[in-house]
């Protein structure tokens, strides 16, 4: 069972390019650091807010725009990274009675949505992974991990033309995966949306049918060419048709394999969503014994069923985390879709949405 403690700790590390400084809020460091750190599956980074009370002028001067910050929080002997990013705005000093409030915001990770368009071509039989890595390298977008649920081969090559972040999302989507910002870093992870995976299946079905038709046509052309091989030109044409047929067959086999993989992924995701208790290995057990503060609440909209939870701050929980919930109203393993880590001076919590 996961343990938690009541004595909370907050640690803020700032690197302004010249040197690094760490500020702490714990029983031995009486500095008051409040924060609001949202997280979501949206590939556009979240904006996080930090408020520090009664900070000296000298320390305030250490903070600069674009400085790198790392937020950590937890309890005695159990502190972990919540997120990291770069300062985008420092507000004027504010006052609440006799206490000063130093407030700044930072962009989780780096926002690459404003990157200039790129145009590049990939050779025949390039994999989707190669395409994504190539786009990321060209645009200087670091991707920490790349996992494609249904790999794809571009048999005739691929032309990437447009905003790089959008191109990466597009290719990942066709492979049953999504681009996410997790704790400030970009990752391509499996998409667990059955709607999205069904779209992948439909696309792969159309591709397989088209490739099969081309293969059958290539067979017919080869058979026709075989009937007339008296001249050198006719024999050359036959050899060309045989090569075209072999290529068409290889393409058809590739699309058939891809279709099988996409159907399997969709079937597994659909089956899992119907189970009362998922079979995924949980990253964290959340119950009233490990920090759950109230019973999860249910909601249902166009995007499907969701459960909202509220617990003592837990740094292990972020977007994509697999959480095992045990309470009266909910007893199953689910995935975190979005949420927020926050501390306002009294409430030290993590709230979120499970699907």
Automatic annotation (TrEMBL):
This is Late control protein D. Residues 344-355 have a biased composition (Polar residues). It comes from Lactiplantibacillus nangangensis. It comes from the Bacteria. The lineage of its organism: Bacteria, Bacillati, Bacillota, Bacilli, Lactobacillales. Residues 336-355 are annotated as: Disordered.
């Amino acid at each position: 069972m996961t343990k938690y403690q009541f004595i909370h700790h907050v640690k803020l590390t700032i690197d302004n390019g010249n040197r690094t400084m760490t500020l702490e809020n714990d029983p031995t460091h009486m500095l008051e650091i409040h924060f609001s750190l949202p997280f979501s599956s949206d590939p556009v980074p979240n904006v996080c807010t930090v408020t520090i009370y009664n900070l000296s002028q000298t320390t305030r001067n250490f903070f600069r725009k674009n400085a790198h910050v790392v937020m950590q929080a937890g309890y005695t002997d159990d502190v972990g990274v919540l997120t990291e990013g770069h300062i985008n705005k420092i507000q004027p000093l504010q006052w609440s009675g006799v206490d000063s409030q130093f407030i700044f915001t930072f962009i989780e990770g780096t926002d690459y949505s404003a990157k200039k368009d790129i145009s590049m071509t990939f050779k025949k039989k390039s994999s989707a992974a190669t395409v994504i890595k190539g786009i990321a390298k060209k645009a200087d977008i670091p991707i920490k991990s790349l996992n494609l649920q249904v790999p794809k081969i571009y048999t005739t090559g691929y032309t990437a033309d447009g905003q790089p972040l959008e191109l990466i999302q597009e290719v990942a989507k066709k492979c049953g995966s999504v681009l996410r910002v997790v704790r400030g870093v970009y990752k391509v992870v499996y998409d667990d949306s059955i709607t999205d995976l069904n779209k992948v299946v439909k696309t792969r079905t159309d591709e397989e049918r088209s490739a099969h038709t081309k293969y059958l046509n290539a067979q017919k052309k080869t058979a026709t060419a075989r009937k007339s091989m008296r001249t050198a030109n006719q024999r050359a044409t036959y050899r060309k048709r045989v090569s075209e047929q072999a290529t068409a067959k290889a393409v058809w086999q590739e699309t058939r394999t891809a279709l099988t993989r996409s159907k399997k992924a969709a079937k597994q995701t659909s089956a899992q969503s119907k189970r009362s208790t998922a079979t995924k290995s949980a990253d964290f057990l959340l119950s009233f014994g490990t920090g759950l503060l109230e019973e999860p609440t249910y909601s249902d909209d166009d995007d499907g069923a969701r459960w909202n939870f509220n617990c003592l701050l837990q740094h292990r929980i972020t977007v994509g985390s697999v959480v095992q919930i045990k309470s009266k109203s909910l007893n199953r393993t689910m995935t975190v879709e979005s949420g927020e880590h926050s501390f306002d001076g009294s409430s030290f919590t993590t709230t979120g949405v499970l699907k």
